[in-house]
Fold:
Amino acid sequence: MSVRKRLLQISALVLICALIAIVGYHVGTLSPSEDDASSFFTQKDVLQLWYTDDAYTDFLNSAAVAYTEAQSQIRVEPKLVSATEYLEEINRASLAGQGPDLYMLSNDSLEKAYLAGLATQIPGTAQMGTEHFPQTAINAVTYHDKLIGFPLSFDTCALLYNKTYLEQMGDTEIPTNVQEILDFADGHDAPENVESFFTWDVSRMLYNFSFASDAMSLGGERGDDAEAVAIYNTQTVQSMQIFQRLSQFFSIDPVEMNYEKVMQDFIEGKLIFTLATTDAVKQLEDARADGSFSYEYGVSLVPNPTSEYSGNAISVTNAIVINGYSEYKKAAGDFGQYLTEISADSLYEKTGKMAADRSVDLSKYSGEKALEGFYAAYEHSTPMPKLMELSNFWVYYEVVLDKVWNGADVNEQMRLMSESVMTQVAGEKYEEEILEVPELAATVEEDKGME
Structure:
């Protein structure tokens, strides 16, 4: 071997030894607390969490900091993104290797996410039992017997009532069905300030789903079974007849009486009963704090359509989902469980949203009893269906609400809605056999309601 080659080999060995010495020095002297972005050896694995609602920002950032401090190898970075084409953007970013490891998603979009490979079964190490979550929450994040999300928060509807007025009228029994509300209005004189016994937003599904009764099935108890879709039957038609009858008893203009107006009227003491969502508690407690609300109030389950027919509210569960493209599924699962159980105790305080975790201590909040009432409503609610074929159901339902409230034939409207929905489910034109549905007998004269 030539002298030149031997010198080159020696030089290369010296250079390698020098590099090893430098690397060894940095590994030995840098601690994990030192912020040196150039050092590969001190970087934590980063979990990206995407969400679209700014109301969650403080909560997610706080939870991420606490988790990062507790985990020496993991750093969580929440990122607020646009809600426009949310899943599509997650898909594009994931295919480019830049997608989130976890993201927040409402339960009705879980089938779409799962079939696109954007949602995966939670790791076996992450447990989800009824000691933390009601069956409603578990059903909401279950798809074909697989848990594909961690329930974080929920929204649903319940009966909101002015407790002060009921006590003044000497009748504190809470109505359990629509007829009992009509009987109450027919049998009592309203306090001076009251403009209506019962007013609510009659145009939106969230406040009116219970009128369709429990005879309506939207994919079974988990909302994922295309064979379990049933809309048009005698019970659903007769229950919606009750809804239409209320338009004759209570004078409500759907254009003018939206949810915001309803809640303001309740705060001002103009209503005795209404239908409200979980945000009502914070709104009422804030109004009490600034002196604009001076009444006692309560929350109960939505009234059944009749004493024979039951009807539950519908609910939306916001879940934390593990991206099927993530390289850190186990770590993502650990954080998802931490976020929805350990951190959930501060969710309402930081966001005004109610946690799906049943073990959260509500006693530290004003409006505790009302919050418990909404939690009971959630436990009894029907989760929004996951089936993509039912993604337009709420649109069809709100069209029916508008037409039925304004006097259209109930039987025909329910049949047409069912045919539209079932055509999407079946993938071909679907026709319902027309049912002969008798009108329910009226037990209260319609013209005795308050204008």
In short: Residues 255 and 385 are 28 Å apart (CA to CA).
